[in-house]
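Extended Data, panel c. Modelled sequence:
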Amino acid sequence: MLLKPTRPSLIRTRSKSACTTRPVIRLRRLDDSSTDVTEDVDVDNVEEEISPLRSMQMRIGSLIQNGIVEGQRFALSSDLWRYAKPTAHCDLLITFKSNQDEERMRDIVQWLVDVIKIHEPQLRIEVRHHNLKDCYALYLTATYKSLLKGAELCHIKKNVKSHFGGGLREFCFEEAQCFAGIDGRNTFLTDMERAFIVKQMVDMIRAPTGGITLQTSAKNVRIPEGMAIVPFLTSTNLVEKVLPLHSTEFLKHLQQKWVVSIVDKQPLDEIRDYFGTEIAMYFSWLGHMTGALWFPALLGLFMYMFFGFSFKSTNKNVVPKQDGSQFISDICFVCFAFFNCIWSTAYLESWKRKQAELAFKWGTYDTNCDTYLQDPRPQFRGEYFAPNPVSGRLEPYYPPWKHAIVRYGITYPLTFLCNIFMFVTMLIVFQVQDAANYYFGGSFFLGWICYLPMIVYALMIVISDKLYRQLALFLNDLENYRTDDEYEDFLISKIVIFQFVSAFGSLFYIAFCLKDMKRLQETLATLLITRQITQNIMETAVPFLMEKVKLSQLTYKMTKSMSERTLRRHVEEARKSNTLGEDLKWQQNSQAYFTLGSPTSEGLRRRFSQKRLAGNENELHLLENLNQTDDFQLHSPRLPLPEFKPSDSTELNQAELESLMAAYDRPLDDYLEMFIQFGYVLLFSPAFPLAALCAVINNVVEIRVDAFKLCNTVQRPFGRQVKSIGAWQKAMELLGMVGVMVNCALIGQSGLVQRIWPDLSWGGQVLIVVVLEHIILASKIFIDLAVPDVPHWIRIETAKQEHFRREAFKRESRLLSSVGRSGDTTPAGDNVDNRQRSQPDHRIQRRSVTPAARSMTTRRDRENNCIDHL
């Protein structure tokens, strides 16, 4: 039967309750008798069948259309951070936690600004509001005079003029004219040094006796006595970040010479100037290790290609086949194990000499690591104030016996239990793995079960590493170490012990319990290559992409309330302001007003310049020096502070973007990654001779990966002066000792020993291992004693410098004695002369790095003379 629709007609039907109009479609039906029969079909019934499909199509189409529109808007808003304008000079940036009550946030900002102005009035402060995170930020800079004083307190070394003896010496403010380049306000101190000095100024602001209370509208915060205020606010999540800012132009130059270039040498001097000695020392160590790894890499490649390493059976009840290839493989295995022992010793000794050369070149060779000469950490908690035994300055004091109780009663037992738990878990996983291979190894459908134990173990390693890292940080904070060096050394020891068990435990079990060299070879190759690939991706690619997505999400959220026309206008303005002409103009202005401090806009810089030229030449006017009648309004309804700079523009600056990056505290994870790789190569590479070659390839990539990370994905770290790689040197030496033992043990159970002595008992194998171990350890100790850690020319240069210092001291002593006998007055005044007569060792006190030990009168006169000359 066919239904042929006719022209629809509307039939009005009335119900008793109401009048309704119901559309009806009249259909003509052609039956077999060819007679036309009409039927009335209700439209509502047809719409009930059609409307769900049509509505679904409309909804899908609407979603697609909205997605396209929002995607275009998302990409358009992302241009705001892509074209972020550079930030004018700023020594230190402090950002506050977002997602807080607006009134409470204002109270915190005002309180901290007042505290900084009271304790460090020489710091210039500008408060700005960051639109992306909806938070406030402090832009801090310091005057040149205060930076020079801080350089002395931070023990920064500078070059001395040639006619004063030359060389590097710790900066002394009273003798500023003796240092080369002191007249260059913009060049004498690098950006890294300026940021480090300002951070030390801020960190030295501590709560007074009895503590201090931060009163806010929501909740008061009590800061204990002696605690550093800004680090305490950071620990309580009131202050989010404290960071120095990147120098955009220098960073681009550094990336071209360092990140992009593969063949050229690393610009270590420029890295040191920009990132500090600690990071430069790490990259030098990494490059030195890469060069040293070429020797085992080429030897292992040669042996692997021409002789091969085949492991047929390790069962002592099975007599190995007497073929030539197996015999050569066994000889190569033993020779490679011997070579590893000698190579590791030579590498460690050569690095000691290399780092001594770098430390002497960078002025950190004679850095005193005595804890009493170092300032306490900002996070150091003292029970009360006590004078320093060396300097006499009051500082927080914590009883040593409490350190010992926490360390021996809590830290060591917990660390031991964590390592035992990890080792037992590894044993259980291997037992489950063997059972899975036995029951499901030959099954086609259930063979995937054999992979589950190792997958679970890999996930457990990742999770346990993160959990143990948090535990190690908690225990280190609980132990409350006084200096940064002590804190870092004990943190490294905790992490290295756990990582040693988690990274090498399975290989030890396979090598010495299962005695399966074939499985050891496969497991080592899998762990080494997989770890290298995954760590490089997780270290660089993932953070870089996540950061860009995060910035795009924040800019999209910030501009969501704007119309499309307004958004396009703001983006176009950001693009125009980022042109090359504006870039060059900003560079000229920033160079011209580099010493003016915190102003971050061109109008403010012009206004500062006019004020400075109109007044005293040595007087640098701040925001509070500007008149209220200026076109720039000082006070804002948002934050009634003279230091607040209101901005209604959506234009972003580079400082706001850098504050959203991840922090890079110290290269601990980078050292740890290379330490584990060095262990793979040293301990078990006789089973997999290509391990060193894989390590060389990885290190070439790792240098660029770490450089890219420092330049693009993390905040600029604070420069830190070091003379060596610290605790990692001891860890590498201990690993070298373990490497000797492990390689001797592998030789003892190798196929060559079984071939020569087929009936050798277990006790005989142990005896061979012990004899070989003692011979190689004796050779290692002999090399260590025979090769000096410091090159001869460095000892000569340091002796020359000491000689010049003694001669200068003699000349000054003769001058002071002659002036004292003649009774003439010194330029500093009669009171200084009298004090010098009563205290013959005044020179030592005057040259002390402790400000309290100096005479305020003499200091004030010398400061005025110094600054007037500058």
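The chain has a mean pLDDT of 76. This feature is highlighted in the accompanying rendering.
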